[in-house]
Amino acid sequence: MSRQSVAKAHQKIQELSWEPAYHEPVSQYGTDYTFRKAQKKDPLKQVLRSYFPMQEEKDHRVYGASDGAIRGNMFRQVQERWLEWQKLFLSIIPLPEISAARAMPLLFRTVPNPELHNGQAIQMIDEVRHSTIQQNLKRLYMNNYIDPAGFNSSLRDFQSDYCGTIGRQFAEGFITGDAITAASIYLTIVAETAFTNTLFVAMPAEAAANGDYLLPTVFHSVQSDESRHISNGYATLLMALADEDNHQLLARDLRYAWWNNHRVVDAAIGTFIEYGTKDRRKDRESYAEMWRRWIYDDYYRSYLVPLEKYGLEIPHDLIEESWNQIWNKGYVHEVAQFFATGWLANYWRIDPMTDKDFEWFEYKYPGWYDKYGAWWENYNRLATPNGHKPIVFEDVDYEYPHRCWTCMVPCLVREDMVMAKVDGQWRTYCHEMCKWTDETAFRPTYQGRQTPNMGKLIGHREWETLYHGWNWADVVSDMGFVRDDGKTMVAQPHLDLDPSKMWTLDHLRKCPPLASPNVLLNEMSDDERTAFAARYVKGGPAGRPAPADA
Amino acid sequence: MTTTQDSPKTERSVPKPVFTDAEAGAQEFPDSNSRRYNYYTPQKRKQTHYEDVTVEVQPDPRHYLSQGWLYGFSDGRGGYPLDWTVLKAWGSDKPSPQRGPGTGGLFVKEWPATGWHEFRDPNEEWELTLYRYNSNVVRQVTQNVEAAKQSKAFEQWNTNWVRFVEQHVGAWMHVDHGLGLYLYANANRRAPTNMHNNAISVNSMHRIRAAQDLALYNLTLSEEIEGFDGSAHLETWNNDPAWQGVRDVAEQLTAIDDWCEAIFAANVVFEPLVGELFRSQLVQQASPRNGDFVTPTVVGAAEYDFAERDLRYTTAMFELLTNDKEFADHNKSILQDWAAKWTAQSLAAARALQPLWSQPDAKPPRFEDGLDRVKSRFSGIVTSLGLEEPKELSL
């Protein structure tokens, strides 16, 4: 179709919507937002006559490349260090995608703009595309990559694994609670507009540098749909801004959504990009540099800041604090170190860092070696079983962290840990903002205003709780992270596939039982708890316990 | 003779290919040959591609979701509550594992824990199939309309037929659009498994596409036929008494809270009794007699969507529930009530459409004959599900 006819066609399909004359459509989701003064424009201007063939053509390219990768023996050049992290990523991401599809109906009744509903329906089916095309990519990896373990069990694994649970927020946050908070602000305004840049653009570039050109093929195809979703979000945001009563809620939701996305996405993608790569060229961008470009410049400065003049209260302080966390407080490094500490509770293999890696980290993040170098040397030393226990049980100057109740990433920047008794339970938080999210934002009143539609944080949010007092061999066995010989673990702290070098349940049997930090916290007396907190915040960096005289 | 010296070549900074030998089969070790998704049991002997990309993507606390849902609505409920429909699949009443300190994951060993997870879309729809199918439809429809334009086919239409198409064929686009968005797309948030919700979302796109097919066909006719009123369908939909019954039922369908009732009422009752009556017994029959060989190709695409794909998954979905080993009677009793309620409503809407049969110059087969045919087909659908033919069908 010509451009003119696309415009005419889009104009024509506006005739399809109608106001109910006899019965209102069912209203199943609530919002505390109002849209009394909303302007009504669909920025998408997409008609299915052109949409379906366009997507089919994109599919042709994706599947053609997939065939080519197999015929061209791509996996002879793929870095195992990289593909192992895809076991985590591709176990999580199909759920957020499909959850985004499920989120669209939350907006039908709450955003009174029939024109926009067309775009939301297209987003719904886009998301079905993303979820299934990603499952298919994982299937291809499982069939063609040297080690299928972790790919073959991925949708069991991620549902019980602590990393998978962190990632699951990036799905459940879309489909519950206040409809606008969830399906618009958290999903489209922040997750899709800001963080898909690192997820679907920056990360695939790193994949290509590690010999994997299928991830970019699939994810750039996915990202080409995201621009439509960003338009959906932008249109809804402008509608919300038109009503001043919404400004307070927008400010709340931007703060929550920004901070949670930063905590979750930067933790995961930062780790994949920095610790999953073998590309140590000095002029390749670090995650911090990518973040500065994609998130700070492209999203914050180019997208968010111009909205300030329309009354949007931008969380400048949190954006700067996120940067501070990444650049000054080593957030990504702390997370990667923790993932490696907890390798035995995962379902992928984590390659030790080498001198070449150390050199790169020191170049990109001056001072890195003094903080993290010795620990990674210990990780390397303890990688294959040789009479010792996994690193988490060995004396390597690392204190196992407490977990953040809100974002579920552990409280790794120790000085930022805060504690509160909420809903009758003592909880630790990785940062004041995560405490605010639980204590203040996800509540039925906000700054004196009734917010009856706001969602709730639920579930067993500290993974260790379920296994408090268990032997580690039983933990790993219960979660099913075991290979088909019934004893060799899926996870390994190295890439050597020689069975004699691989950890088994027998090694774990000799380890101390798992202790839940949160259970222990709640067993403490008030004095003990105060002393614990005072000491905890003096720990770090790199997980170091507080000095004895602290 | 002068010699030239090669200028020193600066090597570009790009990642270098490295031979890693990380392909399948390069080594033998535990799991090295475990190359299938091992977390689900296929419906048939072998796992299908469809199952691989669909099953278990939407988690369930009764299975692997040991930490439970993490975010809830204001009432504290998260995920996909089973009581979003009153129908039940076996295991529905069994409580979820109660996990807490030291319980472990309490993973359900006998899976599926509920009959809901037995459902598989017989169309095996996922992204590759849905785009292929719908692209083929829009291409074929576009080509049909284009060929008709080239051959001046619309010039054969008599005035009454032009009025019929602009008003009545046009009016149906609103049914497709309204249900596509507010019934089917809406229901894709409601069902307890990914298999259900994906099938429903594909159904939604069929209806929205069919609505747009009609709207864009209407646009072409406005450009091709002098005097064709491209907005007449709005007046018809809003005010024509013959259409108000259909509109009333369509709106009621979008007002249903229970997702199973919505799919059942729309696909088992309304579509056979009203949709197919309008499309197959009226438009498809009347068009050729009035010199129109184009409209049936547009309307026929939507008819195929329903008859060959949407009804197919719907039947598979409800057959499981009416044959459920624990709740078959419970389900049949409710479905029987729904069938009665929606049959009465749909038949009233169908009868209100009767004046349309007399509008074309060349008349289609009699309304009553068409109605008998769709009743007969409907009867076959409900009895195949193990339900009785509702008595409202003969009223």
Mean pLDDT of chain A: 95
CATH class of chain A: Mainly Alpha
CATH architecture of chain A: Orthogonal Bundle
Contiguous helical run count of chain B: 10
* Count of separate structural domains of chain A: 1
Q: Report the end-to-end length of chain B measured between terminal Cα atoms.
A: 109 Å
Low-confidence stretches of chain B: none
Percent range for β-strand residues of chain B:
under 5%
Class by helix and strand content of chain A?
Answer: mainly alpha
What is the first-to-last residue Cα distance of chain A? 71 Å
Please give the count of helices of chain A.
22
Average residue pLDDT of chain B: 96
Beta strand count of chain A: 5
Give the neighbour order of strands across the main sheet of chain A.
Answer: 1-2
Q: What is the CATH architecture assignment of the domain at 127-394 in chain B?
A: Orthogonal Bundle
Helix fraction of chain A by DSSP (H/I, runs of at least 4): 55-70%
User: The CATH topology of chain A is what?
Assistant: Ribonucleotide Reductase, subunit A
Largest interface by residue count?
A-B, 129 and 113 residues
Keywords (chain B): Monooxygenase, Oxidoreductase
Enzyme class (chain B): oxidoreductase
EC number (chain B): 1.14.13.227
Region (Disordered) (chain B): 1-37
Describe the structure in your own words.
- The complex is a heterodimer of chains A (550) and B (395).
- Helix content of chain A is 57%, strand content 3%.
- Chain A has helices at 3-13, 48-71, 80-92, 94-103, 105-110, 114-144, 154-160, 162-175, 179-209, 214-241, 247-275, 287-304, 316-327, 331-341, 355-364, 368-381, 432-441, 463-466, 472-479, 505-509, 517-523, 526-536, and strands at residues 418-422, 425-429, 445-446, 449-450, 456-457.
- With 395 residues, chain B is an all-alpha fold.
- At the A-B interface, α1, α2, α4, α5 and α6 of A face α1, β1, α2, α3 and α4 of B.
- Chain B: InterPro entries: Ferritin-like_SF, Phenol_Hydrox, RNR-like.
- Chain B: Keywords: Monooxygenase, Oxidoreductase.
- Chain B: This is propane 2-monooxygenase.
- Chain B: Residues 1-37 are annotated as: Disordered.
